[in-house]
Write a structure and sequence with these properties.
Elements: H1 2-11, H2 17-22, H3 27-30, H4 38-53, H5 59-81
Helix pairs in contact: 4-5
């Protein structure tokens, strides 16, 4: 949770605390050890959608944020699928 929180902080334009604590990140290689396929990517995004629904954010932000999360999530899937 710490890594995700720090990553999202910097990714959304806040302080780049992830890099300060853990060093630089390249999203696909950082997730290459995880067996993420399209179905799992979609399940993770669905979980994020539920988490966003529980927050008191404006609806437009929730839609925008989930759409933005789809970009790095989509970059993770091919890493594993190409190695199989």
């Amino acid at each position: 949770m710490d890594k995700l929180g720090l990553f999202l902080c910097g990714w959304t334009g806040g302080p780049r605390r992830y890099g300060e604590k853990y060093g630089p990140i390249a999203i696909p290689p950082a997730h290459a050890h995880l067996p993420i396929i399209e179905v799992e990517k979609d399940a993770r995004l669905a979980c994020m959608q539920v988490a966003l629904q529980e927050q008191d954010y404006p609806p437009a932000f929730k839609i925008y944020f989930l759409k933005q999360l789809t970009v790095p999530a989509s970059h993770i899937v091919p890493v594993r699928q190409n190695r199989r």
